[in-house]
Design goal:
single chain; alpha/beta; five-stranded parallel β-sheet; 11 helices
């Protein structure tokens, strides 16, 4: 039986060029409302994955996203947001895209068609069995991703796949299949739309839940965020004021001295109990 890509079936809407802007944006919004419900159905697989990632990371393992085109870009974006948000070293969550960094801005011809290159790209990071590799492929058929996942499994590395099609080849190549079935795109086959939105939501869940379980959040606050601009310094200062009851200026001095809310609070409490 031939594999049918639901995500690439004809749009439910016709004659898009004849529609008003009002119609277009409301139609897109109608389709976007389906994404969260599709993600909800995939939550058991997301939960299983995070439960397996956390102990691996506690032993020094890393998360790798790997994908091509839009899927690859979204993995790179999620990985790049972990250091500023949670204060983790960039080596903990890594995004790899077919064609390398050039492909973030420009398409790289045939990059996604090489079944061996994905594993070659992973090997550059000395990947090992403590790591987790998450392949992202809306179509579910990307050779670059499938080849990487298959080789990872042969080497005892935990794998997962995020796709927009049920029973996709990429799902069969992974230990955990996260199938987020959003249906046909508003513009036929344009996976940057609903598929991309759902992929971003799932990546957010995976890394945010993992970072919380790794102790990078206290209460509901990003106590390990990087102090990379005035807004974040102010936010961190206010966290310390709330936590310790200090004047704003003293809280800011402690924050800048220690570099993170967590370190500032811990040092202050330790010093007052000596």
């Amino acid at each position: 039986m031939a594999f049918i890509k639901i995500s690439e079936q004809p749009s439910l809407y016709n004659d898009l060029e004849k529609k008003s802007v009002h119609e277009i944006i409301h139609d897109i919004n109608t389709e976007d409302k389906k994404v969260a419900l599709a993600v909800e159905k995939a939550l058991p697989a997301v939960e299983e994955l995070v439960e397996k990632i956390v102990p691996r990371m506690q032993r020094g393992g890393r998360i790798f996203y790997i994908g091509a085109g839009t899927s690859g870009r979204l993995g790179v974006i999620d990985a790049s947001e972990i250091p500023p948000t949670f204060g983790m070293d960039p080596s903990w969550v890594i995004g790899i895209i077919a064609g390398g960094d050039t492909a973030l801005r420009n398409p790289v011809e045939n990059a996604e068609d090489n079944t061996l290159q994905g594993w070659n790209d992973l090997e550059k990071f000395n990947i090992c069995d403590k790591d987790t590799v998450i392949g992202i492929a809306a179509s579910g058929t990307t050779p670059y991703v499938i080849g990487a996942l298959e080789e990872c499994r042969r080497n005892g590395i935990l794998t997962a796949a995020i796709t927009s099609n049920p029973d996709a080849p990429v799902s069969k190549a992974a230990d955990i299949a996260i199938e987020m079935i959003v249906g046909p795109e508003y513009v036929t086959g344009s996976s940057r739309m609903k598929s991309g939105t759902g992929q971003k939501m799932i990546c957010n869940m995976i890394t945010t839940a993992t970072m919380i379980k790794m102790g990078r959040v206290k209460g509901n606050k990003m106590v390990n965020m990087q102090l990379s601009n005035a807004k974040l310094v102010d936010r961190g200062t206010r966290m310390i004021v709330e936590e310790l009851g200090l004047p704003y200026d003293e809280a800011k001095r402690l924050l800048l001295l220690h570099g993170s809310v967590k370190k500032a609070v811990d040092d202050y409490r330790n010093s007052t109990h000596r």
